[in-house]
Design a protein that fits this description.
Elements: H1 2-24, H2 27-34, E1 36-41, E2 50-51, E3 57-58, H3 60-72, E4 75-80, H4 83-92, E5 97-98, H5 106-109, E6 112-114, E7 119-121, E8 123-128, E9 144-147, H6 152-159, E10 163-166, H7 170-178, E11 185-188, H8 189-198, E12 204-209, E13 213-215, E14 218-220, H9 226-241, H10 244-252
Parallel strand pairs: 1-4, 1-5, 9-10
Antiparallel strand pairs: 2-3, 6-14, 7-13, 8-11, 8-12
Helix pairs in contact: 3-9
Length: 265
Amino acid sequence: MKSMIHRILCLTMVFVLVVFAGSAEDLLSTIRDRGYLIIATEGDWQPWTYHDADNNLTGLDVEIGKAIAEYIGVEARFEETRWDSILAGVDSGRFDIACNGVGYTETRAEKYDFSTPYVYTHKVLVVRKDNEDIHGFEDLKGKKTANTASSTYAALAEEYGAEVTGVDTLADTLQLVLQRRVDATINSQVTINDYLLVHPEAEIKIVAETEGDPVAYPVRKSEETQTLLAAVNEALEAMRQDGTLSEISKKYFNGLDLTVSDMAQ
């Protein structure tokens, strides 16, 4: 009798472990069961993710994020947070995915799995209009820049020998440049162009830019995220094929289609 009970208990434990393991290996199923995709974003980086005049969250990444959620068959739920909390939140499982203009780098790819690129953007070097000392990235050695900590912009500035001051928002960044508290900043070309359209009087100028860099959506590097990553890639490919991705790019990037890399153009 005890032997039979022992066997039943063992089989029950095996069954529970198998079921638990199966559910843990499929984040996409978990998302579909709960009914929504948790998306990390900043909410203050126009035109990627920002609030419009009616305080509605909008932007290129918001629109694409909603389309991905719809493709999966769930609701998109955006969690607004500071940049330096986004990737950490993805890593901890707080967020399913990050939609916030995250540039792909080999270093980040060691810790996160990335979707296929959805746009390719240029980094630009920005200084005050009256700055005559900085004409290119090589001139950053020994200078001070303002950039979001852990961003590819900060990494590039440090690569060229600059001392980086950490900031939270684009507005803070440009304020430091205008106040001469730092010498320059590096940011997305489309973001700076968008800022200048809204603030044509701003005393800043672009003095250099990089080649196009791939921007993609990161998920936690794990076996359980692979089904989600595959679904995200399928959604992006569907939008690429039917022209939706191109339309969204032109809508938020002032008519520019940045869905194709420089090498392919």
